[in-house]
Amino acid sequence: MLATLSLLLISNTSTFVPNPIGNTQLAFIDALVNSMTKGEGALKHTCYQVRHTSEPTTFIEQEQCRQAQKEVEFSKRQYPIALSFVSRYESQELNSTADKLSYLSDSSKFIKDCQTEKNTRAAKTMRYWGTEEVGDWHYTNLKKMGADNYKAILTACESGSWVYTTREDIEEKISDIAAEIASKNFVTNCSAVASSKNWTKAQQLENVNTKNDLLTKKNTIEILSNQVDGANDSISGIDSTLLNSRKKQIKRSTSFCQTAIALGEKAIADQEREKARALAAKREAERQYQRAKEAQRKAAAAEAARQQNIQNANEGVILD
Questions:
Q1: Which of 270, 273, 280 has its CA nearest to residue 204?
Q2: Residue 246: which of 227, 221, 219 has the closest Cα?
Q3: Helix, strand, coil shares of the chain as percentages rounded to 5?
């Protein structure tokens, strides 16, 4: 191409006198030289000329920069979404079922955007226009959007990255939860208060723990239901029919537990009151016993004193 360009510019004084080169031709030549000398930064250099200088440019250059601007605008919409996902989940421990299910939902969208190259396009565009890795200038607004973190997105999109391994791990755990939900013993029941006199605090605590377990399972079912409804499908074999059935069972068991716990509380309170009455009666009996014992002691002491006085009086009598 350069040879062709040189031939066009060489003048043959004996047969041809070239016309003056116009601004458009100069711009085309500059663009050609720019593409050959600037390498990856050619477009960035060209668009700087188009937008930020008064130098003449070609229609092709202007159109390239318009297309580049469209790509920048796309990245300004897509990049924050991708970066938010990476920032949130890359180092977060997903302990709760809610966190795990949120990750499944969010990672599905992220992975899909990686597969359609939306995320990679956005990350590469941010690198090109928002950093100085290419060229010697950047757009400040893209820099402020976190353009320097583009590598984290490109890495996350790679096959076998933490995004995929974390998802596999969570899917396995959700499968375990699904198996538990499908089991016959998933919904536990509280013990009935058969005898209020014999009801123990240990039995009461067991019922309270059962109720708390039911509430936890209810929360899990609700989270799964929202995910299933949103996906209009099933998760690890859990469908809406099974979830609705478990909801009803949990509701019945929770209601029974609330009644049993209330009865248990009353039974224990009655037992405590009875114990308190028995203890009070015992203490009163002990006080009465002590009072009687003290009275006996005083009476014995008084009698002893009386007898001593009599003896003393007898010994003081003088016989003629």
A1: 270
A2: 221
A3: 75, 0, 25
Q: Cα–Cα distance between 320 and 304 in angstroms, integer?
A: 30
pLDDT by residue, tens only, the chain of 320 residues: 333 333 233 333 333 333 343 444 444 434 444 444 456 788 888 888 888 788 887 888 888 899 989 999 999 999 999 999 999 999 888 988 778 888 988 998 999 999 999 999 999 999 999 999 988 889 999 999 999 999 999 999 999 999 999 999 998 888 888 888 888 889 999 999 998 899 999 999 999 999 999 998 998 888 888 777 555 555 666 778 888 999 999 999 999 999 999 999 999 999 999 989 998 999 999 999 999 999 999 999 888 888 888 888 877 655 55
In one-letter notation, the amino acid at residue 91 is S
Q: What's the whole-model pTM score? A: 0.58
User: Distance (Å, rounded) from C-alpha 253 to C-alpha 262?
Assistant: 14
Residue 194 Cα distances to 199, 203, 264, 267, angstroms: 8, 11, 10, 10
Backbone angles phi, psi at 116, to 5 degrees: -90, 5
Residue 284: CB atoms within 10 A of its CB come to 10
Tokens of 214: 């039911």
Which amino acid, one-letter code, is at 53?
T
DSSP string, 205-233: HHHHHHHHHHHHHHHHHHHHHHHHHHHTS
Sign of the dihedral through C-alpha 115, 118, 119, 125? positive
